[in-house]
Design goal:
271 residues; mainly alpha; 3 domains; 82% helix; elongated
Amino acid sequence: MSSIWKKRYIKKSENLKTNKNCSQQAIDYNSYRFSVSEWLKYSFLAVSAAAIGSYVFYKSIIIFSCLFPFCFLYPNLKRKELIAAKKRRLVVEFKEAIMILSSLLNAGYSLENSVKEALVELRLLYAKDNLIIKEFEYINQLIYMNISVERAFDDLAYRSHSEDIRSFAKVLRIAKRSGGELENIIAHTVGVIGDKVRIKEEIITMTTAKRFEQTVMNIFPLFIVLYIDISSPGFFNIMYTTVIGRACMSIGLIVYLSAIYISKRLLNIEV
């Protein structure tokens, strides 16, 4: 986020932060707080991966003991992925919300009333705990406190850290100040953002099969080694009992982890 946008938000949001009830409901989408069950789940997955990796590549309890403390740091590495997924879910839901907002504006509603009616429509589409429901409830609270709609969307744009939501908030603010044809400007902006979000979702859908193949291919080499080791005991003994064997297994581990990293980067397509 540019420093200009950040300064603008800080200047405009001083009054928002003085209200304790509203500040407690606001969500910063650049942060993620794990529940106890989530933290245990991801820690268990890390411990399992460390155990399998230690056995397949080294057959060493010492290696596993060294890796074990670091397994509990894995949730922090997973946090970035979970934040990205949360942002993506918000943007998809936001696209539906502004499409409803645009149709209400075209039907003759004022901007403030359109936001209120949009919340009613969103409650019919989504569950009560969906992100966009919470955000539009929060926006309506700000409007009830005599805070302008554009400032409320500025607040959401800052907290979401999303370029699409930020663009909409910027266009809304300029259109409201200029006093131009608000309905047409918002409709055009909604169309552009909707097309962009739709393309992102289509890319994700098209690469879903490849992501599944990637997961299978990441696990498959480990199963091959485990299968041979179980079906032919002692077949890999030389790889675990000699210096050259351990060096080869270490190189194999580096290549294996590099392949996983590269495959994830290849499927991470930005629009």
